[in-house]
């Protein structure tokens, strides 16, 4: 049976409402759509409670959208909230202590899972003061990594790994980068050469405790909420094991060509080093980490073309910019 997107969304919304009934909300609780990107987010408002909540429904398209891996994501998120002063959402369990629920949506092509969090107010950092915001972001990222280095995950903890084989060989479910928007002809040849060199360079990067561990993996502006002096981090959906410094290329996702790029990089590093050590040898590897992020985004935009207008709008230009960066990368490392 063919099911329209509207019907599927209605089925998902009905299931989220059913799951919310498993929590300690009153009968007056309201569930309304809030946002949509990779996942669908609903706003959960109980007039009897001062705190508001959100329910996140995973798309189910990615290799790490399983109940087991989502629960592990929530383990780390909970530990960050309990062990540090980094502001992150609170994970909310139902009356029976369950944090992840399977939605009964027969017409969904993949299993869907939902989890509830406290709602955090705020807005994306203003572009009027990006350098200062990037310094703050570097500082908060360092605090996140300090926790990751000292944290002992619970037994059976599993999350994805953001390494060259996972990204270049599509073990994440994002799609093959070769299927990115407009990758053909000479552009494809140049990117293939760059990918080969990139793989070799990544294999040389250290994976010791000071360089590699649990990261957010998508700490870009869209996942940062600023409210006065408060800065919060949301959306840990992509968190996993990776090089700590790869958070910096992620922060510049889709604004890689910002006219103040060098200043933003400098401020992020300065903010990070004010809190934690950052080895200069790893900083020298930033061109490789930036290129690895670009290949990940090529893949992401390619598979999101069928789902997001954003991908259709920027995909062709992003591919051309990546080709230009790949040519420079080849000139330096090839």
On the 0-100 scale, what is the average pLDDT?
94
End-to-end Cα distance, whole Å, is 51 Å
Number of domains: 2
From N to C, what is the helix and strand string?
HEEEHEEEHHHEEEEHHHHH
CATH architecture of the largest domain: Alpha-Beta Complex
Q: Major sheet, described briefly?
A: 6 strands, antiparallel
Class inferred from helices and paired strands: alpha+beta
Low-confidence blocks of residues: none
CATH homology superfamily of the largest domain? Aminoglycoside phosphotransferase (APH), C-terminal lobe
CATH class of the largest domain, please? Alpha Beta
**Helix share, percent:** 40-55%
InterPro entries: Aminoglycoside_PTrfase, Kinase-like_dom_sf, Pseudomonas-type_ThrB
GO biological process, one term: threonine biosynthetic process
Family: Belongs to the pseudomonas-type ThrB family.
Keywords: Kinase, Serine/threonine-protein kinase, Transferase
Give a short synopsis of this structure.
By secondary structure, the chain is of the alpha+beta class.
Overview of this protein structure:
Belongs to the pseudomonas-type ThrB family. This protein has 334 residues and is α+β, with helices and mostly antiparallel strands. It folds into two domains: 5-118, Phosphorylase Kinase, domain 1 (2-Layer Sandwich), CATH 3.30.200.20; 127-333, Aminoglycoside 3'-phosphotransferase, Chain: A, domain 2 (Alpha-Beta Complex). 43% of the residues lie in helices and 13% in strands. It contains ten helices and ten strands. It has helices at 5-20, 67-83, 130-150, 164-168, 185-203, 247-251, 261-273, 280-283, 286-304, 309-333; strands at 30-36, 40-45, 53-57, 91-92, 101-102, 113-118, 212-215, 224-227, 230-233, 240-243. The strands form three sheets. Strands 1, 2, 3, 4, 5 and 6 form a six-stranded antiparallel β-sheet that branches. It has a two-stranded antiparallel ribbon with strand order 7-10. Strands 8-9 form a two-stranded antiparallel ribbon. The radius of gyration is 20 Å and the shape is globular.
């Amino acid at each position: 049976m063919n099911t329209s997107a509207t019907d599927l969304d209605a089925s998902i919304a009905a299931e989220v409402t059913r799951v919310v009934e498993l929590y300690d909300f009153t009968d007056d609780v309201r569930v309304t759509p809030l946002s949509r990107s990779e996942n669908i987010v609903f706003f959960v408002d109980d007039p009897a409670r001062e705190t508001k909540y959100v329910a996140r429904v995973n798309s189910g398209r990615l290799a790490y959208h399983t109940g087991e891996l989502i629960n592990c994501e929530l383990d780390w998120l909970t530990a960050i909230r309990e062990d540090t002063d980094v502001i992150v959402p609170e994970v909310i369990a139902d009356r029976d202590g369950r944090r992840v629920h399977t939605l009964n949506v027969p017409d969904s092509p993949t299993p869907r899972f939902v989890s509830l969090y406290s709602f955090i107010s705020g807005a994306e950092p203003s572009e009027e003061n990006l350098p200062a915001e990037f310094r703050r972001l570097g500082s908060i990222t360092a605090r996140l990594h300090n926790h990751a280095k000292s944290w002992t995950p619970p037994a059976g903890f599993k999350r994805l790994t953001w390494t060259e084989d996972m990204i270049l060989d599509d073990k994440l479910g994002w799609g093959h980068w070769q299927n990115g928007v407009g990758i053909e002809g000479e552009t494809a040849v140049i990117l293939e050469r760059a990918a080969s060199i990139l793989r070799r360079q990544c294999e040389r990067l250290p994976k010791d405790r000071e360089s590699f561990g649990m990261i957010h993996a998508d700490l870009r502006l869209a996942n940062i909420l600023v409210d006065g002096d408060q800065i919060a981090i949301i959306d840990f959906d992509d968190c996993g094991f990776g090089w700590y410094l790869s958070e910096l290329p992620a922060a510049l996702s889709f604004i890689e060509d910002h006219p103040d790029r060098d200043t933003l990089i400098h401020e992020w590093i300065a903010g990070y080093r004010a809190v934690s050590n950052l080895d200069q040898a790893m900083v020298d590897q930033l061109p490789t980490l930036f290129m690895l992020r670009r290949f990940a985004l090529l893949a992401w935009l390619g598979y999101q073309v069928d789902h997001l207008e954003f991908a259709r709008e920027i995909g062709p230009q992003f591919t051309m910019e990546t080709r230009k960066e790949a040519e420079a990368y080849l000139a330096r490392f090839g």
